[in-house]
Amino acid sequence: MQSFNYYEPATVWEAIGLLESLKGNVFSLAGGTDLMRTLKKTGFTDYGVLNLKRIPELGGIEFDGQVMSVGALTTVSTLAAHPEVNRHFPALAQAARALGTPQIRNLATIGGNLGTASPASDLAPALLVYQARLNLLGPDGARVMAINEFFKGPGQTGLAPGEIITRIDLTVPAAGTVGAFLKHGVRKSHEIALVNTAVLLVPLRASAAIAEARIALGAVGPTVFRATQAEEQLAGAEGGPVSFERAARAAQEMTSPISDVRAGNDYRKHMAGVLVKRALLQAWGGTI
Amino acid sequence: MKRAIELKVNGEMYPVSVSADRTLLDVIREDLLLTGTKKGCEAGECGACTVLMDGKPVNSCMVLVMDAVGREIVTIEGVGGLEGLHPIQEALVEHGAVQCGYCTPGIVMTAKALLDNQPNPTEREIREALAGNLCRCTGYVKIVEAVLAVSQALSQGRRG
Description:
The complex is a heterodimer of chains A (about 290) and B (about 160).
Chain A: E1 6-7, H1 12-22, E2 26-29, H2 35-42, E3 48-51, E4 61-63, E5 67-71, H3 76-81, H4 83-88, H5 90-98, H6 102-105, H7 110-116, H8 123-129, E6 133-138, E7 141-146, E8 151-153, E9 156-157, E10 164-171, E11 178-184, E12 195-203, E13 210-218, E14 225-226, H9 228-234, H10 241-253, H11 265-285
Parallel strand pairs in A: 1-3, 2-3
Antiparallel strand pairs in A: 4-5, 5-10, 6-7, 6-10, 8-9, 11-12, 12-13, 13-14
Helix pairs in contact in A: 5-8, 9-10, 10-11
Chain B: E1 2-9, E2 12-19, H1 24-31, E3 50-53, E4 56-59, E5 72-74, H2 87-94, H3 104-117, H4 123-129, H5 140-159
Parallel strand pairs in B: 1-5
Antiparallel strand pairs in B: 1-2, 3-4, 3-5
Helix pairs in contact in B: 2-5
């Protein structure tokens, strides 16, 4: 067996320096719940592992009442239990509770979930409707990427070589905004989504009309995506079963699911519509 | 290359020499010889390898041993002791919730973490907490009944 290269940088700049000098022959380890499976399959020999977990700057949640800055190493269980996440970003808290199992949620991180770029990510649809901004750091310095520009394909992201996600910023939506996350699977928990959706509705002040709608879907395309055509259907419309049904059909039209061992593409497409309508009704009926 | 590290397991410091590609599960079982923690799927799905890390249940097969340095690890050997079984273990025995027993150490660790943080969980909360522990004998009803019973007994004890 070849020796296994393992690195444990203490600062982000040390990590960036290592990533640059190793020229891609290294996996960045965050929570490890996906990477450990990959390493066990491929063996630990070909690539090294750059363990990011000892870098304090990548942890913690900071909130000034308007913008929340979530460290990339924040675990899914921390997100799920965080009072301000639940209060201001309920669809994200619901998504965090729907991910994996308690044991996985205690290890898995928000940054790792984004970096893995699974089309069936539970956190990504919620982060899409809250228009998360990803703070990236690499050899060329820091930059901010809107989350809707981040996903390029299954496992493919907009990260440049040697770049890591450092923090995820979320801005509190307008007052009165409601949101929901729903996941459909065969089991109640411990499940990879057959389809999932996050929705967010901003009501027009003192009326039953919708000023702005955001709808994101997962597991029904090569990446998680915003159903913009459905969102346009709802802008200015009155909220309720009729407009939600119309929007759900528009969202359904934008899906391109695959058939696999877990479900057929026709079933996934059908359930995408069902789930979007259900999430819209749930969000509109509830409040933040 | 081997690295000399120290692991804190069940309150004791264990100096070990490990290569960095090993999992916490493998080191617990093969180096510390604490074989109560079981190796099941090795893919983070079955929960047989559940240990507590800083009080939280995790799949030890998904943790590189290097990540356990500086953390408090509790395995099934750290539950109960010479004076007798932990109340959760007793309840599992009393309710016939142990069949082949392979999932039991993981179930005990997860249930302990739940009851340590939330002494009076509902049945639904117990089921949600145990969602990551598979019992291939499918004895879930008795497992949930046992955890519910021990939580009720503990809360009555506190009141009494």
